[in-house]
Structure formats: structure tokens, C-alpha cells
Amino acid sequence: xxxxxxxxxxxxxxxxxxxxxxxxxxxxxxxxxxxxxxxxxxxxxxxxxxxxxxxxxxxxxxxxxxxxxxxxxxxxxxxxxxxxxxxxxxxxxxxxxxxxxxxxxxxxxxxxxxxxxxxxxxxxxxxxxxxxxxxxxxxxxxxxxxxxxxxxxxxxxxxxxxxxxxxxxxxxxxxxxxxxxxxxxxxxxxxxxxxxxxxxxxxxxxxxxxxxxxxxxxxxxxxxxxxxxxxxxxxxxxxxxxxxxxxxxxxx
Length: 252
Prior knowledge:
By secondary structure, the chain is mainly alpha-helical. It has one domain (about 5-250). The chain has eleven helices and no strands.
């Protein structure tokens, strides 16, 4: 199915979806595929919904990653995560067109909601330097398999970085860099197996316009948000994302 074949109302809803997802992305540094893919998947098949995110994801994450000043330090700190993220993404992406994500969405949604609520009610949860060294490659595998199957790299990577207590601008730069590597790997793999078509790549280019408008709006909003407020908003958005994943898992 091609996004270009859809009717006017569906196209309009798609544009609104991209604008809203871009605004969330600009504000929090996350949420573009997490918001857009589940909504697009209600009117498109999953491979098409994922393919449409090509240009918006790569463009928004590149801009986001360049906003900070610690790109090299971030790559040095998280290279063990990237080493496992890339191959697990490649393997999982081979099964994108045939996988049933209901069970995975349900389990992931429950984990996201429980983690987010624990942060909102101030249940202590932090990762030590030693724990980070152990968890980096583990999170890379988990994030790669989930992202390769659905383009939803966000939940495990976001929860991990939140637990590391990164300052908001460092969080935004780090998640942007991780998403660039993950998404580039995913879309190169999809192109090699024929899931990413020319029509969908063209539609993805058009989708980047409302997404970047949303990112611009969201970035302005983020500059007005204090660190504590940023953390609360991030957790509330994660709860909503988790509930949406649960909804998908239950087929509602």
C-alpha cells in the first residue's frame, strides 16, 4: 500500500499526525515514531507506516543531535550499546512484514507504564556506572530487536537514559544520536529487502514538512520548560505511549 493512494481525509489526518508527532519530538526529544506509527498503522499496514517515517526521523534526529555540544563524548560513552543495537536491528528488520506485534506491544506497554509511574511517584531507580557498563549492550539488543520489528526504538532507550539521570539537553542530544544510528540501520535494511518503495520514500519526503514544522514549535516550547517540569512531562508522555501500546496489544 502507498500513502499516495489514500483519500483526501486520510491524507489530512496523516498530516495532522505528523505535525503533532513533530511537536512532541521537538519538545521532549522523543515521540516521533512512538506517536506517528501507531496512528498511521490504523489506516496503513505496518511496513508502510514505518517506511513513511524515513525522512522525518532522519532529519529531525540529525537536527536534534547537532543541538548539543557533547556528541563525541556521547558516542564514546554509549559505543557498547551501538555495537549491539546495529546487528540486532538488521536481524529483526528481516521479519517486519510478517510479525504480529500484539503480544510485544502489550508487554512493552505494561513495562513502560509501570516504569513511568514509578518515576512520577518518586520511587528511586537509578543505574550506577558499573551497572551502565553491563546494561549498555543489553539495552542495545533489546532496542534493536524492538525497533527492527516496529521502528519503536524509543521505549527501552528512553527508559534507560531516564534512569541514567541525564540533564535535559544531554538527554535530547544522546537520544538523537542513538536514533540516527538505529534508524539509518533500519531503513538501509528495509531498502535492501524491498520494503521501502520509491512511492513511500517520496511520501516520506512530503511528510517531513509538517514534522519539521512541529519540531520547530516543540523546540521553542522546550526552551521554556525547566528541568523538573521537563522530567514530569516526559514521564506523562511515556505513560500515554505505554497505554497506547497496551491498547494496540489488546486490539482495541
